[in-house]
């Protein structure tokens, strides 16, 4: 069983972030209710992500552009779209 230990973040689009070190999987909960997982994310990259000044910008430039997200839960009508910001 995966243990993500979700942590709330300050962002206009992202609600919380979690990471499972055993599977190198990042989980992101969006404010619109969608939850996505990104596999193969190094621990160091997650550490930079969670401590970045703008998690929204970091997501757009360093996560979304490099890793394929899989929707694991969706209470939202459409997948989240970020335009390079929070």
Can you characterise this structure?
The chain is an alpha+beta fold. The chain has one domain (7-73). It contains two helices and five strands. The protein has helices at 43-51, 55-63; strands at 7-8, 14-20, 25-30, 35-39, 69-73. The protein has a five-stranded antiparallel beta sheet, with helices on one face. Strand 2 (14-20) and strand 3 form a beta hairpin. The radius of gyration is 12 Å and the shape is globular. The N and C termini lie far apart (31 Å). The model has no long low-confidence stretch (mean pLDDT 88).
Task: Summarize the structure in short.
With 86 residues, this protein is an alpha+beta fold. It has helices spanning 43-51, 55-63; strands spanning 7-8, 14-20, 25-30, 35-39, 69-73. The chain has one domain (7-73).
Detail the poorly predicted runs. none
Give the ordered list of helices and strands: EEEEHHE
Major beta-sheet overview? 5 strands, antiparallel
Shape: globular
Q: Which percent band covers the strand fraction? A: 25-35%
- Between the first and last Cα atoms, what is the distance in angstroms? 31 Å
**Structural classification:** alpha+beta
Can you tell me the number of structural domains?
A: 1
- Average pLDDT, all residues: 88
What is the chains' assembly state? single chain
Radius of gyration: 12 Å
| Helix proportion range | 10-25%
- Main sheet strand line-up: 1-2-3-4-5
Total helical elements: 2
Number of DSSP E strands: 5
